[in-house]
Every structure is written in structure tokens, then in C-alpha cells.
TrEMBL record:
Annotated protein name in UniProt: Uncharacterized protein
Domain of life the protein comes from: Bacteria
Amino acid sequence: MKPIFTGFAAIILIGLGSAFILPELGWSSAERQSSENVRLD
């Protein structure tokens, strides 16, 4: 049972970490999918 909870904790940490770190590095979906012809408000 302990490995399952460890896996769940790892998934949560990776998900939260990527949600906060990737936009800071310029890897947000809005920045990656837009071009200079698309205006983001």
C-alpha cells in the first residue's frame, strides 16, 4: 500500500510543480500555441 501512496504523492508533486514552473520558463500553452498573428488579451 505504501508504494501506491508514494506514487500518488509523486504524481501530485509533478503536476503541481509543472503547473507553477513551466509557465515561468515560457512553456505555457498560450505562449507555445500562439504566433505573432494572434493577439492574447
